[in-house]
Each structure stands twice: as C-alpha cells, then as structure tokens.
Design goal:
The protein is built from 10 helices and 14 strands. With 308 residues, it is α/β, with parallel strands linked by helices.
C-alpha cells in the first residue's frame, strides 16, 4: 500500500487533501504541530514540530512514507512576504526531504508559489516566464524548488512542485480578500477594498487540493502551475460576492491603497496541469463562491472569533 505523509494537514489546502488521498487508496499519515484535525478512522494523526529537525527525523523514521506531500509553511497574511520564518522553513523542508530520501521515499510533491515568477510578465508559464521573485517568501520558495530539482535528479527521486496562484474557500484566513469581503458583508459591515482593477487567477481551494493530489498521482517532474487559468478583475469578483449576499451597497472600492508593486495582471498558464497531469477543475467561480458564502453563514461565530 502507498503510505503518504501530509504536512500542513490542518491548513487551508491540506485539510481538503485528506479525503482525496484516502479515496485514492493511500494510508494517510497527517502531521500537525499543535492540534489534531478532524477525526477520521482512515487518517493517522501525528503531532510534531517540523522546524525541529530531530522531531521531523523521528516522524519520518516512524511513518516510513513512500510519498510525501509537503504543504506546511509560514503563512500569516502580510507578514509572510518578508518574514525570516521563511528561512527556517527552507531549512526544515530540506531536512525533511533528506530524511524522506534516506528512508527510501519514492515521490515527493511540494508547494510553491506564483511569487517565484517575474510579475511584470503577467501571464505565467512554467517554461517561458522568467523566475525573478521580489520578496523573501518568493526567493525562499524558488531556492527550495531549485534544490529539490537538483536533488531529485541526483538521487532519482520522483519530485514535482506545485506553484500556487490565488485561492479562496472555506477556512481561508479571514484577513484575505475574498474571505474578508464575505465576512464583512455577512455581518452588515462596510467592505473597504482597493480600486479593484487588478486582474487575478482565483481557484477554489477544493480544486487546488485535487490538483495537488493529481500531481502526486502522476509521474510529472518539476514545476506545475496550480490555478484556474481564468482571468478576472478583483472588482468583478467582489461585486459577485455582493450580489450573492445582497449587500453590494456595503462595498467600498478605492478605500484601501494598492501596493506599489501590485501587478495589474497575474494569471497562470495551466496547460501543463490540464494536459500532462490530466486535471480539470470541478468548481466554477460561481459554484465556489456559493460554497464559500454558505460556509461563512454556517460559521458566523467562528468568523467573529477569528476577527479578534
């Protein structure tokens, strides 16, 4: 049986990967540094701090995974772009990778980011767009991907790298754009936003999870974009949310200044994901927003607590 270790298993993407991995016949081992996730007879939970190399090594030795899906990273909104925590996660990821290979691991997939690309190009292709990250987060992710690529070729370890674009959905941090607009409108509060003319690529988080599992299941090597491939302006998605909740009157475009390095257009080319990996999204934008808004309605008290 294929035995997988999933890091970031209680995180935004990881929690949605768990049932998909079980459905694909993996013996699933999930790790969290603090709390155990939702109980499931099909998931083995482990508590370990992956930033502690000794704990990480002990975990790999105990589980002996054949597959590794590494999603864990420092992800506090705004702070993560230039936090020194990124350096700690590079070290931890490399240690985890070495232990995985040392114990005869077969395939590893790690999470990258669209922040690895030169954003001045707008339309991002794995083979054509230059890699020129402008933040410490992007530099650290790209450095890890370069090492993973070289290491996998030297050791013949099967390895792939999923470059994530813009996600939304249940359990998203309440300070992110879509979740913050939904939160405010559901509570009858104004939703201050930037001008909203920026064009982005948004993917429902369940689809992102299925893309990572499909990438893990494949034999594709190297970087693969994880996105929808569909451009949409921020103001269009914001007003979609307003219409669905019935509170477009509370939207305040232009009240927040956009950052100086905010690119006007940033969208993924996902031909490699669709053609080579064989993945297709299940959720349209409307379907994903409906699911996310309903989750927000069902968890109003949780959203209030997250705001404090």
């Amino acid at each position: 049986m294929k035995r997988i270790l999933l890091t970031g298993s209680t995180g935004f993407i990881g929690r949605h990967c768990l049932p998909l991995l079980v459905a694909h016949g993996y013996e699933v081992h999930a790790v969290s540094s603090k709390a155990r996730g939702e109980k499931s007879p099909d998931v083995y939970w482990h508590q370990a701090d992956l930033l502690d190399e000794c704990q990480a090594a002990a975990l790999i030795n105990k589980v002996q995974p054949s597959h590794l899906l590494h999603l864990a990273w420092y992800a506090v909104p705004k702070n993560y772009w230039n936090s020194s925590e990124n350096l700690r996660w590079v070290r931890a990821s490399l240690s985890l990778l070495q232990e995985f290979a040392k114990h005869n691991g077969e395939r590893v997939v790690m999470a990258g980011t669209c922040a690895e690309y030169d954003w001045s190009y707008g339309y991002c292709s794995e083979t054509l767009t230059p890699l020129a990250p402008s933040t410490l987060y992007g530099v650290c992710k790209h450095s890890l991907q370069s090492i993973l690529d070289a290491f996998s070729k030297q050791t013949e370890l099967s390895a792939a790298w999923g470059r994530i674009f813009f996600l939304y959905g249940p359990h998203e941090n309440p300070d992110r754009l879509i979740s913050s607009v939904i939160r405010n409108l559901l509570h009858g509060l104004p939703a201050p936003c930037s001008h909203g003319n920026q064009v982005r690529d948004f993917l429902y988080v369940v689809d992102a999870a299925s893309a990572f599992v499909a990438l893990l299941q494949s034999n594709i090597q190297g970087a693969v974009n994880i996105g929808s491939g569909v451009p949409i302006s921020l103001k269009n998605i914001i007003y979609k949310i307003g219409e669905k909740i019935g509170r477009s009157d509370l939207i305040r475009l232009g009240e927040i200044a956009s950052s100086l390095n905010d690119p006007p257009f940033l969208v993924a080319n996902i031909q490699r994901l669709k053609v080579q990996v064989g993945w297709n999204a299940r959720y349209s934008l409307d379907m994903g927003l409906d699911q996310t808004i309903q989750w927000g309605k069902d968890n109003l008290s949780l959203i209030v607590n997250d705001r404090r």
